[in-house]
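Q: Joint fold for the lines below.
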Amino acid sequence: MNPIALRRGAIGVALLLLITLPMWIGSAYYVNIASQILLFAVLALALNVLVGYGGLVSLGHAGLFAIAGYTAALLLEAGHGHLVADLAAIVVTLLAAAVFGVLSLRTTGIGFLMITLALGQIVWGVAYRWQSLTHGDNGVNVSGRPAPFGISLSTATSFYFATLVVFLAAVAAMALFVRSPFGASLRGTRDQARRMNALGYNVWLIRFVAFLFSGFWSGVAGLLYMYYTQFVSPQVAALQASAEALLMVISGGSATLLGPIVGAAIVVVMKNVVSAYIERWNMVLGIIFVLIITFMPEGLVPGSVRLARLGWRNLRRRSGAAARLEEPAS
Amino acid sequence: MTAPAATASKTAPAAVAPTTALGVRNLCKAFGGLRVTCDVTLDVAPGERRLIIGPNGAGKTTLFNLITGEVTPDSGTVILNGEDITRVPSRRRAHLGLARTYQIITLFARDTILRNVTLALLGLSPLRWDPFVALDRQHHLVDTARAALARVGLEHIAERPLAQTSYGERRRVEIAMALAQNPRVLLLDEPFAGLSIDERADVHKLLLAIPRDVTMVMIEHNMDVALEFAERITLLHFGEVIVEGSRAEVVADPRTREVYLGH
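A: Joint structure:
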């Protein structure tokens, strides 16, 4: 079978399933779960730019996610319109990402991880303690979702479609980025930073631009989440949120397009669906991650591809051996 | 700041001018108490083939790192085509026509051979910032990369992942990446290290085919191939230039026998 045709077919089927999802999934509850998966997939894809393609493991992305949500929610509370609030949220998130980037890109590896962790914790601390601005633990309530082009997003289905459009835009942006010269430059800095420098690349600036790109989509995801729950609280900026985003990327498979999406689906389903049946859902999530890391250390998506190829090869070898055994008889 | 430059140009007016492709003046570098480069001065003429030899730890690779800017000197200057580049960031030096290969192979193991060389070309192209086009469709880049691979005799395995290549092939990819950048000065750090006799002959032929508009400086221990390559030789020992001169002069010098060639 032609692999390109197969790929196109698979993308077509996936698109069809996503577009018709509200019709076959049953209740509004599950439509909302699907919206959550898509918006967290946008966050995971954003984080994957740094973790997967840049080799820069960030534990502070919930901070950027939360800054977008808080900025928009506070501006809405102050009486501004959705357009102003959302644009301002993206600008503020980009500025925050620039500050995060300047501070954290002084190092890579563990140093980078620790600085992003600290920055994320600062955002959480501000959200939690600066009560006059953020209302602390009470969070910020948002009344109503926007109505782009006159389409109300108040129902689960309409919000799902809005999220789907943003999600597809994010996937398209990532697909373009991965194949682009800039994507190749970023991967080069991950694999051989020293060589890239000697070849004439500005390693720091490449990483910084990638950080902004990642920050932009984290902010978009944060806005979606704020509109989804119509509420933001310090929990959004918590370390656990950053860790979950990282788990999505790593469990699904970093440096792949599909991996973070699959990872987001696993984490969201565990948190929402499995938790309804099993009280210790965190333990189940933990066991699943241990299994993934044990059997597919590269992540679920590349790991499945590898195992499938291995199985296919064994199958062919066995059938080939069987055919050779039968030959003398016939 | 201007006074020392003025005296330097008075004492050696022609030395810095076009007669020197690559110049190093009084270069010093110490790592802690260890002086790895002491007052090294070199002048490599355009098109020259210079060999740098010396025992292990003589500071040969450090000298290359100082020239490319990967290590910052404590004092002294580096001159490329008459221009003082001592303060130029190392990434800019590639744009000024300086390329190098590494003694320890430094390649992109997850990519194909072709992609490795394409990255070398992309480094000098403004296209490297473009997030919107597909790199594989940049035909002029990819074709130039193929041409560079043809020069080192690897175009037939251009699509092969680097992880599936032999050590000798990787050495040639290193050279292809440097050549692809069309440098004016090429620094080769032990290009024959670890190669079999046949592979050595291949690389040797390849280096001889590099046109004269490229100035080449090579660090090498393999005397049989290196001596044939060299026009002038510099012998380093404990970071200092001990002997410098034509091939015959350096080989005949008793100090060369003492510290390097042995008896």
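Q: Anything notable?
A: The two ends of chain A are 30 Å apart (CA to CA). Chain A touches chain B at residues 176-177, 179-185, 187-188, 191-192, 194-203, 209, 213 (CB under 8 Å).
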